[in-house]
Design a protein that fits this description.
This protein has six helices and 13 strands. A hairpin with a 4-residue loop joins strand 11 and strand 12. The strands form two sheets. It has a seven-stranded antiparallel β-sheet. The chain has a six-stranded mixed β-sheet with strand order 3-4-2-1-5-6, covered by helices on one side. The chain has two domains: 115 residues, Alpha-Beta Plaits; 102 residues, no CATH class. With 247 residues, it is of the alpha+beta class.
């Protein structure tokens, strides 16, 4: 191994770094997500996380930044975020990094998941090249498709609607209804996180009537309207924040 830094030797991170990491699950600190790829590694203790952070940041010219969480996450473990520039050869850069990390950790085969998906892939260079969007255009295209699948499933679990998503604009047509509804999608995710960003709700008669109308159109969602004239659809622990678009 020729890139060990900060006094680390082969095997020093054995049993500390988990073999599965995620890509593009977390937002970049260094730039736009379409330009920067974030790898998130899981560590079992704080000292090991700091060692991995220093190793990544000081030993690799292709690493833009590395940062470890100051405290444990919800799963009582630590994360180390390693950021790479998104370009055609990033699969090569990541492979080089992992090959050296294998010697530090004793891990023979790393695995990765992409975005919010939980299906793991072996972190071979072939899989990294095929699964990861390696250009800004490819990233935007992939994320849009993933977002379409997530929001379509959220709004149309039983496949009863004609549903389209284009540049965050949702178009919904329900069979038997003459209305075509268009919304701009502002956020989608776990309800607790969505509500943390919500300032206040509108409870006037007009707002209540709009929420009732949307409930009749979409079905059994809990729908509220915010002070910013946005609607929050909530169901099964997830929420979507949307606003009217051209209607």
């Amino acid at each position: 191994m020729n890139k060990i830094t900060e006094g680390l030797r082969a095997g020093d991170l054995e049993g500390i770094v988990e073999k599965r990491f995620s890509v593009d699950q977390y937002k970049s600190k260094m730039g736009d997500d379409s330009d920067v790829m974030v790898l998130a590694f899981v560590c079992n203790n704080a000292d090991g996380a700091k060692d991995l952070e220093r190793f990544a940041e000081k030993g690799y010219k292709h690493v833009l930044d590395a940062d470890s969480t100051p405290g444990t996450m919800a799963d009582s473990k630590y994360r180390v975020f390693v950021e790479f520039s998104r370009h055609e050869g990033v699969d090569r850069d990541i492979t080089e990094f992992l090959e050296d990390l294998k010697q530090l950790t004793g891990i023979e085969t790393f695995e990765f998941t992409y975005h919010k998906r939980t299906v793991p892939y072996e972190a071979s260079r072939k899989n990294l090249a095929e699964v990861l969007p390696r250009t800004p255009i490819a990233y935007r295209d992939k994320i849009n498709k993933l977002k379409l699948g997530e929001t379509h499933s959220f709004f149309d679990k039983f496949k009863m609607l004609e549903f389209k998503l284009d540049n965050n604009i949702i178009t919904v047509i329900k069979p038997g209804h003459k209305d075509q509804l268009k919304f701009e999608l502002h956020a989608y995710g776990v309800t607790d996180l969505i509500l943390k960003e919500t300032k206040a709700f509108l409870i006037d008669d007009k707002s209540m009537a709009e929420c009732i109308h949307l409930t009749k159109y979409f079905g059994p969602y809990h729908i509220t309207k915010t002070l910013e004239n946005r609607f929050i659809f909530t169901k099964d622990g997830n929420s979507a924040v949307v606003s009217k678009y051209k209607w």
